[in-house]
Every structure is written in C-alpha cells, then in structure tokens.
C-alpha cells in the first residue's frame, strides 16, 4: 500500500532542505553580495573599517553565501571574443634560434664556409652557406639543435625541421611544435589578459579559452566593449632599439636586418632602427605612472638585473647616439644617450595624458601579449537595460507562477495544492543548484525557468490524470494513488529523458545565451522530476496517513 | 467542482479526417519551406555579421530623421526599426539600428560606432545607447553551422532513443512530427520576418524537446494499450490512447502556454521573439503529436504479436523496461 520508509522520508526532506538553504542567499541578493565582497576584502588584507564590518555582518556566516551569477545581459557589461594570431610567435622563435645556428655553423667553418642569414617568410629561417658541398654536414649540425617537443600529442618528435636546397638551408618549426607553441601562446595570452583585467579590479570577469585559438572575455560592470578592448587588445610590446637614421619617407628601404617604424606623435617622421632590440619589456620588473621634471605625465620603469646590465653596457658604449623606445611598432620617443644609465631604471616621456600614462603602466606591468589579437565579436550591454530585463523577467515569472498555481488548484483541488508546493520547492531547488555550481543566469535562462514552471506541472498532471483513471476502476484510494504513480512513471521518464537529451546537446553545441538556457532547462528537468515524483508523493502519503479518507477526489 | 478543459470521458475520432489533417500539415510544410527558400529568414547579426545599436531617447523615434543622419556615413545597408513594448515608460522611445558587416573588418571598429553615436546625437543630443553588439562574419558563419548541427544532432539522438524504447515505426512518427514542427517554425519566422538569432535556435530545440515530450506520452499509452487490447484495431487503440491522454495533453499545454504568455507580454522586447517561437512551438507540437506522429504510426502499422520476438528488431530489447 502507500508506504514510504523512514529513511526515504528523511532523505527527501533533507534534499529539499539543503536545496532551499542553498537558494536562500539569492532572496537577499544585494546584502549577501556586500557580505561576500567585504569578506573577500578582509581576506585580502584590507584594513577593517566600520563599513566593511557592517557589510560582513549583514549576512550570518554559517549560512550558505554562494549566489547565482547574473549574466551580462542582466547586469550590463562588455563581452569580447578574440582570436589570437598564434602564428605571430613563430617569427620570434626563429629570431631566437638564429644565434645558435650561426654559432654552430661558424665552428664548422672549414666545411660549410661563411654563413649568412637570408630574408624569409615569417616562421622560417633561411641560411646561405658559401660552400654547398658542406651542406650535409651543416644540416647534421643544425639538427643537433633540435629538442624534443614537450606535449602529449607531440611525443617522439623534435621542434625544428631542417631541409636544404642548393646552398640554402631552411629551418622551420614542425607541426607538433607549432601545436605546442600555439598552446603556450594561448596560455600566456589568457594569463596576461587575466592580469590586465584584474589590474582594473572588476568583479567576476569571465576569461575563457574557446576552441583552438579564441578567448572569450566577459567583464560585468565595465562601461563599454571599446574600453575593454583598449585594455586587453593592446599588445604592449616595449623594446629599446639603436637608431640607425631618421627619414621622412616611409618607403625607404631600411637595409638588411633593420626595420622602419613611424613616430607616434609626428606624422611623416620615420626611424630606421636595428631589428634586434637592446632590451625588451620582458625584462621590466615594474612600471608606474609619474610626472617628468616639466610636470608632464610619463611612465617610470625598472629593469630586472639582467636587463639593467644589458642596458647599462649599451648606454655606456653609445653615449651621444640616439636610441628609440618602441611600443607596438611605433616610436614613442628617441632621446640621445647623455650618459651611461646603470641604475636599471628609467623614464619614458612622450605625448602622454594622465590616463594614457596610467594605462601604459598597467600594460607594462602585466606584460606584453605574446601575439596580436583580432576581435570577432563585441557586445556592450548597458546596466539600465540589464536592470530593465531583470525587472521584466521578475514580473513575468511571478505572473506565470501565479497563473499556473491558480490553474492547478482549480483543476485538481487539494492535490493541486500539493503540486503547487512541489512547484515552489522546484524553483527553489533550481536556484539552489545554480548557486551551488556557480552558474550564470541569463535572460534566456529566466525563460528556461519559466518554461520549466510550465512543464514541471506536466509530471504531476500525468500522475493525477492516471490516479483519476485508476479511481474509475474502483480499487480504493490508496491503491489508485499507488498505481497512478507507478504507471505514470514510464511516461514521465521517457518524456523527461528526451527533453534532457536536447538540453545536453544545447549545452555542448551552444555558446553564450543558448548555453545559459540549456543549463536552467537541464537542471529544471532534474529538479522537476524529483519534486513531482518524490516531494508530491511524500506529501500525499503524509496526508493520507493522517486522514485515511474512504474516497478521494482528484 | 473541478475545472476541466476536456470532458472526463471522450471518444473522439482523431483519424476520421486523417487525410485532411495530414494534407493540411503537408500543405503548411510546403508553404513554410517555400517561404524559407524564397523569402529567407530575417537573420540577426549572430548569423550574418554586423552591428546592432539600441538607442533610447525621450523624444519619439523618427525613423526618417535617423536614416538621414546616418546616410552621410556611407555604411551600406542600414535598417532602423522602432521597438514597442508595454513595459516601456512613456518617455522611453527605443529603436534598433542595424548595420551590415563592413568590408575588411572582423568586428565593427570603435571609430565607426562612435561616428554613428555622434551622428545620432545630432538628432537628439540626450540619446543613450543601452547596448551595442557587433559580430564578425567569420564567427557568424560558424554560428550558423553549429546551430544547424545542434538541431540535426538533437533530432538524431531522439530518433535513436525512441527507437530503443519503442519500435522503429514510433521513432519515424515522432521524428516526422519534429521535422514538421521545426519547418513550420522556420516558416512562420520567414513569413513574418521576425528576427532570427541564436536564441531562436535554443527555442527551436526546446520545441523539439517539448513536442517530443507530448508525443512520447501519447506513444507510451499506445504501447500500454497495444498490450492490453490485443484484438483491437490499431486505429481504435490509437484513438483510445489519445482520448485517454487528452486531458493531460491539454492541461500541460495550457499551463506551459500560461507561463509563456506572461513572459510574452511582460518579459520585455529583448526575448519576445524567443518566447514567440516557444508559444508557436507548443501549439504546433501539441497538434503534431496527435495529427502527425500518431497518424504516421497508423499508416505504418505496428507489429502486434508481442509473444513472438522479432529476430530482426533491436527495438524490442529495451522496450519492455517499465520505468
């Protein structure tokens, strides 16, 4: 007959209690958020103040404090999808390899003759030797420079590929090494973007790798995608080059192993520089916005010991000649070296504003991006629009809820009330689970919840309709209720499993809003099956045990 | 007294005019598909790249003035639509400006967006821009592809699941109903030229899920009744099963529609297209589980003799798991 063991009852009510406790913080969203922020600030070592203490005390610490994250469409903020030009890195790898190749071949000068680097496409190193007969030996020597690729898929392969035609030796990265390099580039880019976003200190940014070479960046609360883009889109590659000459013609041939870069402030002025920098931004340890002796905004920086030594040696040898400070292929300034700079620190002056010098300092501190990025998708959602959406969503949810509750009561009477209580618990459980897994609630997510409200009743409707049918065959109420649950089960499971399959596919294939929707839909299915099968049942069983009705009406 | 949407006992004949109802479905599919081919969908920027800017102003929206202000920028095809919504305040006049993807740019440049905002400021200096969204042509192509794959995968997964749980005839019926629903939804979006974006794909897949839910409930009862009434004609069994589940079908559709309608009216304009797709899908999905899925099952016929296992059929082996 209608029976449920004590253990079953405890487990069901406990699950409900835990779920609802997890959902509880969301009903006091602002207060809990302030509490969380205050606690985080105190842990970070921010000195305690009455406001912080009050915020932290605003929510008891023994209660769960995880909240559902609000998506950008609800909170406002900026969204960017960037593609990293991973090939950019290959050229640098080749430049770094060149000195070793030169040295190893120079040691074998008797067989290979003189060695000269040729111009080659990016990611390829071409070397001409004067004695083609020694090519086999040259290839062998260069191959000794190869190192095994460190990656799971690339095991057993080396990082460079050496081939020769006539008197020219060609070196390029192997495919396995390219993959491993791409992976490193992506990791570095992610790390640097994270550091830059953290520097401006916004709440809960999402910085995720997507696929092979894309990065998704979502920052709530930032004014616009443009602002975010200027923060993370700048490569911020800082280099110091010896100046060869200054020209007004951008088409001047810079000569071998030289480069030509425009002046950032004076259009029509171009600098011809040696391609190999003396020092780079990678050797910086610190950068701060400052003012120069004329009161103009500037950026001061400090080199690490290796960089300081190189810079000191170079400036000592070249007093009187100009050198250029280059940022992302533009010359910021090209002062003359007045004396050896040995302290390891310096100052960049240029045409800065206070904002731009602050931004440059942030970028230099966080480090340069290893490669450039193109932006494939940009979205800015204003906070007012987000608030409007929340308000509209809330009202819609309440109305939908009320309509379904009334309708269920009118249709099923007391049993309808049981279903309604289960429905309220169901929505609580969805929020509890969303908070637990730290999911993000988006506008389509709200729609998913509303849809779940509509569909959650379905399982109960199936059961109640079945009980009605079983009652017609006059088996007594207890038996009818039991049969109702039993026979409706296969339909409930089949129906929900199929919907769950689509939710899973949506989650795997979808991105952004679609994914948010699939999460709430999927969780909604799980909780609604639980509440419909177990929670309503336990309520009906408890009611039946107390009342022992001879007849029931469903 | 209980509220009853359908009488407790019904014995309506759902297949008396099967030719008519199936014919109507085929006709609608044809119209929907033709409209989809000829007129195409009104793709949002998610699918064809470009930029949308939402403007908000205290003054009434003057589409012609907006257009004049933007004409000088030579941005190619621009569409300007005013947005109406009951949740807006009186002095809240909203419009959406859509610009096609610019030649050579992956996403629209900051300079372009600013020039548009400056141009709009000449119409109303106090205008605000609550959202700016820009999608490059590269991503949008991929979005279309993954969306199509998602829909096809969902349908395929469902086909397999129903085949395992029931018989292949059921699976064919259910999938025919799904395809019917998807095409009719695409058709209505094409016919009314409602903006078709990523969220609509989510809606489409939900419709797939919902329609299936409905079909599976009917089929579950058919399976049960086929075992119970071994001698009864298939048509009678189908009619009986649909009649028995009719009350549930209506209850569930009505509760879902109640929830969706409140979202449609009160949920704001941002998700209205999405909710519209769902409402349409619930109606069409309910219709199709009776008049398409079951009708096809009737035409295909089902193996009735459950005592002898069919050596060629895999479908049976999970079919007897009750739960």
Automatic annotation (TrEMBL), chain A:
Domain Protein translocase subunit SecDF P1, chain residue ranges per copy: 186-243
Coiled-coil regions listed: none
Quaternary structure and partners: Forms a complex with SecF. Part of the essential Sec protein translocation apparatus which comprises SecA, SecYEG and auxiliary proteins SecDF-YajC and YidC.
Domain SecDF P1 head subdomain stretches: 265-371
GO molecular function, one term: protein-transporting ATPase activity
UniProt name for this protein: Protein translocase subunit SecD
TM regions (residue ranges): 392-410, 417-439, 445-467, 488-509, 521-544
Family: Belongs to the SecD/SecF family. SecD subfamily.
Predominant localisation class: membrane
GO biological process, one term: intracellular protein transmembrane transport
Keyword Plastid among record annotations: no
Protein's membrane topology: Multi-pass membrane protein
Keywords noted in UniProt: Cell inner membrane, Cell membrane, Membrane, Protein transport, Translocation, Transmembrane, Transmembrane helix, Transport
Domain Protein export membrane protein SecD/SecF C-terminal per the UniProt entry, residue ranges: 373-545
UniProt keyword annotation of Membrane present: yes
UniProt cross-references to HAMAP family, sorted A to Z: SecD_B
Cellular component, GO, one term: plasma membrane
Protein's job: Part of the Sec protein translocase complex. Interacts with the SecYEG preprotein conducting channel. SecDF uses the proton motive force (PMF) to complete protein translocation after the ATP-dependent function of SecA.
Subcellular location field: Cell membrane
From TrEMBL, chain B:
Subcellular location: Cell membrane
Cellular component, GO, one term: plasma membrane
Keyword Ubl conjugation among record annotations: no
Keyword annotations of the record: Cell membrane, Membrane, Protein transport, Translocation, Transmembrane, Transmembrane helix, Transport
Keyword Phosphoprotein belongs to the record: no
GO terms under biological process: intracellular protein transmembrane transport; protein targeting; protein transport by the Sec complex
Main location group: membrane
Transmembrane segments: 20-38, 143-164, 170-189, 196-213, 249-267, 274-300
Domain Protein export membrane protein SecD/SecF C-terminal, first and last residues per copy: 117-301
Domain of life: Bacteria
Membrane topology reported for the UniProt record: Multi-pass membrane protein
GO MF annotation: an example: protein-transporting ATPase activity
HAMAP family documented for this protein: SecF_B (MF_01464_B)
NCBIfam families noted in UniProt: 2A0604s01 (TIGR00916), transloc_SecF (TIGR00966)
PANTHER family associated with the record: PROTEIN TRANSLOCASE SUBUNIT SECF (PTHR30081:SF8), PROTEIN-EXPORT MEMBRANE PROTEIN SEC (PTHR30081)
UniProt family annotation: Belongs to the SecD/SecF family. SecF subfamily.
Subunit note: Forms a complex with SecD. Part of the essential Sec protein translocation apparatus which comprises SecA, SecYEG and auxiliary proteins SecDF-YajC and YidC.
UniProt function note: Part of the Sec protein translocase complex. Interacts with the SecYEG preprotein conducting channel. SecDF uses the proton motive force (PMF) to complete protein translocation after the ATP-dependent function of SecA.
Protein name: Protein-export membrane protein SecF
